[in-house]
Amino acid sequence: MEMKDLVGINIDSLVVLLSSFTEFCVLEEGKRKGREVHAYVIATGLINSKVAIENGLVNMNAKCGAIDDACSVFRLMVDRDLISWNSLISGLDQNECFEDAIMKFSEMRKSELTPSIFTLISALSSCASLEWIMMGLQIHCEALKLGLDLDVSVSNALLALYSDTGCLSESRNVFFLMQEYDQVSWNSIVGALASSEASVFEAVEYLLEMMRSGWELNRVTFISILSAVSSFSLHELGQQIHVVVLKYNAAKDCAIENALIACYGKCGQIEDCEKIFSRMPERRDEVSWNSMISGYIHNELLPKAMYLVWFMIERGQKLDSFTFATVLSACASVATLERGMEVRACAVRAYLESDVVVGSALVDMYSKCGRIDYASRFFELTLVRNAYSWNSLISGYARNGDGQKTLRLFTQMKQQDQPPDHVTFVRFLSACSLAGLVDEGFQHFNSMSKVHGLAPRMEHFSCIVDLLGRAGY
Question: Which Gene3D superfamilies match (predicted)?
Fold first, then answer.
């Protein structure tokens, strides 16, 4: 694009031009074109002539993924209006710079500008992503003071915030006070209630009310409710939802089919899983295969799960880390080392052996199959470790009654800046119990709350009781 070839170019046309770059199919191309316009307005001295141009640059850069450039333009602006702040806060939220978005919102509040609906929506979205409920409550109060809380988009953002932070009563209150609803509102309240076992049937009631009110159920609605049914193994309810899916002609949506497979697998209806899976040969994705494999494993059909893995490999289907980790976990649960070794060979062929999820599952599988030497050797070779990797090896040594090695590994874990979690302490205290390390057990039990900020749970107290009992107290 040559700027000299443009006829009659003015400030308004530049603003329109900048907004068009965010619509490019390839955002990188839009970003490149935007930078050309940016260079042009700097060269011609137009950049400070009107705030709309700078706003357009902030918006363009943010939507094209160049959030650092957007921040730079914003920082150099002499005059900022509400659109300037909204463009940056929204851009930070969309680019997952959530803390920065909240900071800019707070900075804006110190100016004389009043937040708009768009400001509140972006700030609430960032709070939801960070699960910052206290900050979210403050923004909710701000919306109430401004009389913007009843706007349907702001209410939907509040529903998302309270849903993501598990505040079901607040979600109900927001929904109850809404003067109008849209499909997002209904999906949000159904999803929020479906996330808790205590309110699953209430979610179904809202689903029925949604249908009675004339709203169309869509993919989001079905996946939310099926996910709940799956988590809590509510077989009859799952079948009823399946009937509604068929009624809406949504049964050939891959995401919904995957949710149905997961649901029936968790409910023990593996034949229904196989029927759905067999009807979607052209629509299967990685989630479909993983859901079917997980269904087999959940129903203790490891040979079928293994067969499906081999079938995937033979047909050139891509296997991901979740597939291998799921099968390795199943091998560990039944202590079948031979099968686990076969899965590891497949992971090596798929170049996934070094993946932290697969690596952690391998350490867990070896330790549970009694080959703590293999587990230790593989653990030492892994470049990236997470809490699960450490916990698996600590558990392996504890299971083998090697309290001293467990103690050394626990110390090494802390020295390498991997904070122990509740699972780590359960496994470490179990090792202390088996090895008779009373003093060490009590010392680290006390450090849970004092040093690591972890409140002891029932299982930790059970370990201490076991430790004292074995020591003859």
Answer: Tetratricopeptide repeat domain
